[in-house]
Amino acid sequence: MNRKKGDKGFESPRPYKLTHQVVCINNINFQRKSVVGYVELTIFPTVANLNRIKLNSKQCRIYRVRVNDLEAAFIYNDPTLEVCHHESKQNLNYFSNAYAAAVSAVDPDAGNGELCIKVPSELWKHVDELKVLKVHINFSLDQPKGGLHFVVPDMEGNMAERGAHVFSCGYQNSTRFWFPCVDSYSELCTWKLEYTVDAAMVAVSNGDLVETVYTHDMRKKTFHYMLTIPTAASNISLAIGPFEILVDPYMHEVTHFCLPQLLPLLKHTTSYLHEVFEFYEEILTCRYPYSCFKTVFIDEAYVEVAAYASMSIFSTNLLHSAMIIDETPLTRRCLAQALAQQFFGCFISRMSWSDEWVLKGISGYIYGLWMKKTFGVNEYRHWIKQELDQIVAYELKTGGVLLHPIFGGGKEKDNPASHLHFSIKHPHTLSWEYYTMFQCKAHLVMRLIENRISMEFMLQVFNKLLSLASTASSQKFQSHMWSQMLVSTSGFLKSISNVSGKDIQPLIKQWVDQSGVVKFYGSFAFNRKRNVLELEIKQDYTSPGTQKYVGPLKVTVQELDGSFNHTLQIEENSLKHDIPCHSKSRRNKKKKIPLMNGEEVDMDLSAMDADSPLLWIRIDPDMSVLRKVEFEQSDFMWQYQLRYERDVVAQEEAILALEKFPTPASRLALTDILEQEQCFYRVRMLACFCLAKIANSMVSTWTGPPAMKSLFTRMFCCKTCPNIVKTNNFMNFQSYFLQKTMPVAMALLRDVHNLCPKEVLMFILDLIKYNDNRKNKFSDNYYRAELIDALANSVTPAVSVNNEVRTLDNLNPDVRLILEEITRFLNMEKLLPSYRHTITVSCLKAIRVLQKNGHVPSDPALFKSYAEYGHFVDVRIAALEAVVDYTKVDRSYEELQWLLSMVQNDPVPYIRHKILDMLTKNPPFTKNMDSPLCNEALVDQLWKLMNSGTSHDWRLRCGAVDLYFTLFGLSRPSCLPLPELGLVLNLKEKKAVLNPTIIPESVANNQEPVISSNNHGQSVGFQNTFSNSQEEEEIDMDTVHDSQAFIYHHLNMLERPSTPGKEQSAGEINMHPVSAAPLSVFSKESNSSKHSDHHHHHHHEHKKKKKKHKHKHKHKHKHDTKEKEKDPFVFSNSPASARSIRSPSLSD
Amino acid sequence: GSKQAGTPADNYQLARRRTLQVVVSSLLTEAGFESAEKAAVETLTEMIQSYISEIGRSAKSYCEHTARTQPTLSDIVVTLVEMGFNVETLPAYAKRSQRMVITAPPVTNQPVTPKALTAGQNKPHPPHIPGHFPEFPDPHTYIKTPVSENNIFISFLILRKCKEKEMHPNPEPAKCLISVTLPLISEGRNFSQLPDLLCLPFSLLPVIAARPFTVPYLTALLPSELEMQQMEETDSSEQDEQTDTENLPLHMST
């Protein structure tokens, strides 16, 4: 359906076209955290009878709306404020449906919005001539909970001295949180942005700074920004604060902003950015589309990187000085990511949510190219492997990530994501983790497309998209051309086939239109007689998250005579593949063995099977399928692969496989790799951990000093005194990373009593004692932090865990040493804090390890003090993680409450999100577990949290949903008492059914049908109002008479021009059409006496009718439903559909 | 470049020190060494400097003992004898043939002795003391402050206050405080009665309580003063090594 649409070009869901918007913020009060301003939208009606304009707005208090200088009536109605209105209905399945319905009821991509403005009747004639309308809205924001974030440090001085600042933030399209707009990525217009701020402050926003004007009293100034490139409201951003300003010395059109005192760090951090610019401009053969670029580094960031039109907002914690090693590559990656999104995401926007994968895919893909160029092929391949492993693990766990969901007109029966506990129809209903994985899969699929059509064509496609967009963007007065700046899946695929002439449809079908990954199991046998390798490749395509793969698969076989690639055709029923071998088994030992890369090496072949010429085999070495491979080959083959295969991915696979073969030969292979300086450092680091595991399995036969100790001594310690480490010199980064990792891995060693060998512990303590960083150019904070991690790793469970009061004296002497070290570090940090407080973070983790192992009493007090607002965010997260863990282990209700209250009240959105995330990953209990924590009050609390407590932050709400799912599952939480009514009377059909709320999970798992088939009043009533415009229409026709009262009621309201759009009152208004009526059917007390009975009656009628419809649909055949699916589209394209229940009345 | 920018006192010290280094190097050459490690030269310089200082200090006290202000030759002789030096051998040593002549240290301005740091309010003269008598010294020089845990705690607080206000306390006292505070802390004394020190939950080792910052990112991101110092040191030591390698062989070869 979308494809068809794309072919015809973009069709707006709105009956008008927005061409220009003015945002003017006159006053920002940091003390009261409030904002006052107005917006003015210039729109052209596209249909003659446009009488209502729907816009997006949340949180804003709207004072006054004028259309062409005439007062206009408006309604503010936001169903997402409170999703469900029925207290007792507490199953998640129901919630998710209701939430999805609520979001789509205000979805700008469906032409909806929270704010509905009635065009004054005086202008109707004007509208009929399709003449321009100017919609002027005065609004204010008071203590916004989302969208705009204020950071106001509590100290002396004025706001500029305190470093107070404010910035826009949010997940996906969240601009509606701070000014009324069409909050869609597909509605582009030009912008004029004005901000009046204190003279000491700087306002940074999108586009060109035209001028700054002082007010008459010289105490304030106004920043005027113009953005002439058509841009979606969702890409508009703002940051105001007493920023220090740095004009990039290499590119004068780039400006960097940071908070006071951080300028030296900013200089160092951004000194690299111009190279990223050059790289992207070169590969895309396209100039950076905007005339300027601004980077702003702010505190309490919502996400590390947020890209907006011509501006990116970063977390201030990415800044670093030249002394810091570890953060440098991470920060550069963030900068590069942000810049990639400037091209694809900001400049080129998307047509609809289902096209999001193209943008994320392309920006992720070109970012990958930058990685390859900057950090090398090894790092790139390692990264691809890491991302692949992540997506595979996630899909197998949750059952699939779908890149390009196609929705058939909102019928949930065809819901492509029925395995998930949330709807994937809207970005705002997605779990954050799912969205992260979605982005990951998108760029991996782009890479697959590149494999298919070659990089050259790929870049040509990107260039084509960009040049089309830039031509369109320069058409200032032809706004219909602007849709060229929107990318759609079909448009993208069409460009690919035009440019490359190749058909990639099967690839798209497999990875984009379908969810799931491939799971291969491989094993082989060598047939000596035929000199043939018999390879067996099985697939698991029945478990959740998997799919069947049919097509080519590359297999690389390293033989004595060289490396050979074979392409197998994976088909339905063929499991076995015969691959002829090129070499005879044993041969002249003198000859060198050629490798894949042409290199020829000497190998010691004594380990291999004398009968077979096979050294090792790899399946899909290029990662050209999204898959997981479990391959069986003997230990010596893995060892050869580790030593001689030059691909880092192969080496890493070999290391992981060798864990299962604790033999001296494996040990030797690993130590050799560890010592080899040409080897990629990440492989060497991985080898450390594998070596520790092998050593532990071989503990009874292990000879010589503990693994890695002599190696470490040789590499990093004094020659004369092996226990004393050399003064730090981190000039060689590879050996720095190795030096950091080896002690951590060594501490995992265990002796026959399963204790960490004394020798190792003493060695690590000596490393700490003799650590000397005076002569080093770099900071050693990460190194010291890892030494503490090593100490924590060496801790084993205490022998006797009883409740005796522990003192320093009866503590295990080793543990005492560790504890003293930790205490000393922790105290030192107060006096001489380390960069990002890495050492405190490690100390907190180590203390939790000591607590968990019973060496010191479990107590969350210390962690709670470090988790308070005002500590550095990394420290807080580490402390909170410990509290979460404590909550789980000690089943503490009090701590859980403490955490949940922090979720509701903490000033930092990221912390709130992170607590929910950590609770979901390490839950105090899960749905099948009996826990004293699981009680009705908790259910209520979480329900409230996701139902109404988190309406200001999409990400947080979805986090709460995730947690609710983890704790209670999809159906009604088991700890709730059975509802009073076990049976529900179905009035329509005159029969009784079991109350759906108490149907056990197994049944409820069959999801939506349960609700709809039982005709439960609420759900039906709900969908009635929101999701199904077609039925609304019908009902309107049917019940014109009934609706009169209802309409009259609303008109009354509309007649008052300056109805405050305040949240509360908004909620009330919201109640009328949405909730009151559905409530009335089954709720025991009729609490909605505010409204006329007539009104109620009307809704009651609705419901009955609705039930009938719903019921019919259920029993109709698929053919029928398909027809239905099309209907809404017909309506949505016609002007009439933009009206909902009330529309006819308004025009009457 | 950075050295010229130093204070006159620093320049003065540095020039003397350089001369002493040259002296040591030439003595070593005399003794038959061809090269010396930098650290060894440094140690010897340190020794010779303290030896000379000690001579000066004792000579001064001998002279003050006899109520004079200018030391005489006899004061120095007595001092040398007292320190176990055979004074008789000195003239012969001074006239030895292999003796190298060393240029006098470059003339630098005698540093102005900075006014002693005043702490607190000096007590006014009581009525029975005439006004032309010198003022009372700073109170801290005679006020008695018995050492107790509380004091250490307070000095720790002072130190932190300094840090918070971004005042730069003299690095020396800062280091002292750290070295005083930390051993006490790690010895496991009971600090629990102090509000600012929190004992680890297991009441074993006292940990300084976590205090939230008003602007947490500043301390977390900016390099600490110590690190800045180190940065400068590593930078300047690199320079030193350069100049030393240039300088030392020069002196050695003469």
TrEMBL record, chain B:
SUPFAM superfamilies referenced in this protein's UniProt entry, alphabetically: Histone-fold (SSF47113)
Keywords: Cytoplasm, Developmental protein, Differentiation, Nucleus, Transcription, Transcription regulation
GO biological process, one term: transcription initiation at RNA polymerase II promoter
GO cellular component: cytoplasm; transcription factor TFIID complex
Annotated Bromodomain associated domain residues: 12-89
Coiled-coil regions listed: none
Acidic residues composition bias: residue spans: 230-244
Region (Disordered): 229-254
This protein's record includes keyword Transcription regulation: yes
GO terms assigned for molecular function: protein heterodimerization activity
Record keyword Ion transport present: no
Record-linked SMART domains: BTP (SM00576)
Places the protein is found: Cytoplasm; Nucleus
Main location as per UniProt: cytoplasm
Classification via InterPro entries: BTP, Histone-fold, TAF8, TFIID_su8_C
Organism superkingdom: Eukaryota
Family: Belongs to the TAF8 family.
Protein name: Transcription initiation factor TFIID subunit 8
Organism (species): Molothrus ater (Brown-headed cowbird)
Highest classification ranks of the organism: Eukaryota, Metazoa, Chordata, Craniata, Vertebrata
